[in-house]
Description:
- The longest helix is centred in the last third of the chain and has 20 residues, at 263-282.
- The protein has 2 domains: 6-261, Type I PLP-dependent aspartate aminotransferase-like (Major domain) (Aspartate Aminotransferase, domain 2, 3-Layer(aba) Sandwich), CATH 3.40.640; 264-403, Aspartate Aminotransferase, domain 1 (Alpha-Beta Complex), CATH 3.90.1150.10.
- α5 (92-103) crosses α6 (118-130), α5 packs across α10 (231-244) and α14 (326-333) packs across α15 (387-402).
- It has a 7-stranded mixed β-sheet, with helices on both faces. It has a 5-stranded mixed β-sheet with strand order 8-9-12-11-10, with helices on one face.
- The model has no long low-confidence stretch (mean pLDDT 95).
- By secondary structure, the chain is an alpha/beta fold.
- The protein has helices spanning 11-17, 22-25, 44-53, 67-78, 92-103, 118-130, 143-148, 172-181, 194-197, 231-244, 250-261, 263-282, 301-307, 326-333, 387-402; strands spanning 85-89, 109-113, 134-138, 156-160, 185-189, 207-211, 225-229, 287-291, 314-319, 338-339, 349-353, 377-381.
- Bound molecules: pyridoxal-5'-phosphate (PLP).
- This is Cystathionine beta-lyase.
- Belongs to the trans-sulfuration enzymes family.
- It holds the Pfam family Cys_Met_Meta_PP.
Amino acid sequence: MSGKDPKEMRAATRVTNAGRRKEWTGPVVNAPVWRASTHLYETEADRKAAGKSNADGGFFYGRRGAPTQWSLAEALTQIEPGAHGTVLYPSGVAAIAGALLTVLRPGDRLLMSDNAYDPSRSMATGLLKRLGIEYDFFDPLDMPAFEAKFDAPVKAVWLESPGSLTMEVCDVPALTAIARQNGAVSLIDNTWASSLGFAALEHGCDIVMMSLSKHVGGHSDLMMGSASAGERWYRALRRTSQELGQVVSPDDAALAARGLRTMAIRLKQSSSSALRIAQWLAEQPQVAQVMCPMLPNDPRHELWARDFTGGCGLFSFVLNSSDPEASGALVDALNLFGIGYSWGGYESLALPIFPHDHRATMASPTKPAEEAGIRPAVRLSIGLEDTDDLIEDLAQALATMDTQ
Ligand SMILES: *Cc1c(COP(=O)(O)O)cnc(C)c1O
């Protein structure tokens, strides 16, 4: 390997090189799996010195990780523009908790985007509320309403773009600028785009979190999360994570690192396949609306094209039906799409969704404010199958709707 900093390389080169320090890989390509609780010291003086430093990449005890985890964390830092360091968590939800518990104290107020991932919302209304932290949901597309929320002090703003299920891209630089002017910390769930598709810290966010169970893992066989930040917040994240005893297994870290090596090419393939499928779906009479910011006629496409350098295979669509069972029947009729949670794997998935159940301030495309009825919707995670096979499968499943 050359001595070039992976941060200066293009995406596909970065993900293949990041984190592969010679001292961690030895003579082999990948950092081996270091299974360890106890780290042994040569002398008592060495043990004392290790205990004092708490530096990254220093042997101490299993809870602080070993080269397998350090290599993955460093790789994620190197692919995240503006990051000083990355903390790994046993799941994406654990990363959300770790980041919010780092920033918030009893009595603080949190503003959360109304289209945030449902467990993020539950964290605000449950765990954080029990700790005496106030929350308020906001419509990320309504700037005046967002600004008005700062009439009372705000400690942190939680963003997600595109939002879960309904896929609205928000103006992250504008929202984080308002937060900053008011002394609030901006955090973002960047699982959809990943650091390859959206440089969150360079668009105003202080802390960026990802569920690594999705694109980084990429094979639907591991749970992990991460939070990355500049130096100040990285130190704080790391301390909270150590206090909470958060640790990821070396086996999972090695799997995540393996997934990372192909992430750029997987994302490229699944985004172009998803875009073609979204375009095809938009023309089908059984489909009322496609929610995908990569589509040129999506209402938020311009913002997406301005701020993002890539997309992924995840998007949703609303059915032209008032039968609440129609989305379930449609996914049952599909042969190439698994029915299940998560996404970002090599295999395609389909999931009936009910976003109107999880909104406080935003009208949902599945329950437009002016309409009484509820429209069924489906979220697709497009994998690495041949796009034409997926379209044929969707076509035969949609055709069954006509005869119901
Ligand atoms: C899946 C997901 C998470 C949570 O990640 P887990 O690894 O499943 O805990 C967080 N945010 C978004 C947007 C997700 O889709």
